[in-house]
Design brief:
Elements (H helix, E strand, L loop, with lengths): L3 E5 L4 H10 L3 E6 L9 H8 L7 E6 L4 H8 L6 E4 L5 H11 L3 E7 L2 H10 L5 E6 L28 E3 L8 H8 L3 E4 L4 E3 L2 E2 L1 H14 L1
């Protein structure tokens, strides 16, 4: 099984270059003002020009309005939109119909009920991403928090899905062994400081996943 790899929250050319050269399948650009990884769409457009067509560019938004998405798409055209907030099934449908782009829906996980919620969203989203549920004082993603991976053991979904939440070079092999996830998403553990990815850590993480697959 070839495991898909998503490097999320890139903000520099060096990070993009490392993700591309190391063999990432998806690169995530965050558009959420509260995040240290937040990007201006014009800057994201410049970075995105260095991403070849075989690697998918993902625009990550949190409870974005149509005006928010329009402002992003004015300058930056992603291949996929990732909705990482409390978007309803109806909102996901609306976004897909309006923007004609595939959608990844992030699901915050604390219990098995949250995993079941992912199955529900699979009816409308193109992909699902399972991330650790954040405390109220934290951002919805990129917190380096881990959830109980056994909740996903032997679970199957109607769409491709990513495992996220606290993955790093030390634990990703064990996470994959338990969940058999077809894709992984990583952000904060590959940073030298908040919002700045370390190119070497990106390369090492991708190698670890590819060695497992």
């Amino acid at each position: 099984m070839t495991i898909k790899i998503k490097i999320c929250g890139v903000t520099t050319f060096d990070a993009v270059r490392s993700a591309v050269q190391s063999g990432a399948d998806y690169i995530g650009f965050v558009f959420y003002p509260k995040s240290p990884r937040n990007l201006d769409p014009k800057i994201a457009n410049g970075l995105g020009k260095h991403v070849p067509k075989n690697i998918k560019k993902v625009a990550v938004v949190v409870d974005a309005t149509n005006d928010d998405i329009d402002a992003i798409l004015k300058y930056f055209m992603p291949d996929i939109l990732q909705c990482h907030g409390n978007e309803t099934i109806e909102r996901i449908k609306e976004i897909k119909e309006k923007y004609k782009l595939p959608v990844i829906k992030a699901i915050a996980v604390r219990s098995s009920d949250n995993i079941s919620k992912g199955s529900t969203y699979a009816a409308v989203a193109d992909m699902i991403l399972f991330d650790a549920k954040a405390p109220p004082t934290k951002m919805p993603g990129g917190n380096g928090l881990v959830f109980d991976w056994t909740l996903l053991k032997e679970r199957e979904f109607d769409v491709p899905w990513f495992l996220s939440g606290g993955l790093n070079i030390q634990n990703v092999t064990e996470a994959l062994r338990i969940t058999q996830a077809p894709g992984v998403d990583v952000s904060s553990s590959l940073e030298s400081e908040p919002g700045i990815k370390d190119p070497e850590l990106i390369s090492l993480f991708i190698k670890k996943v590819k060695d497992y697959s």
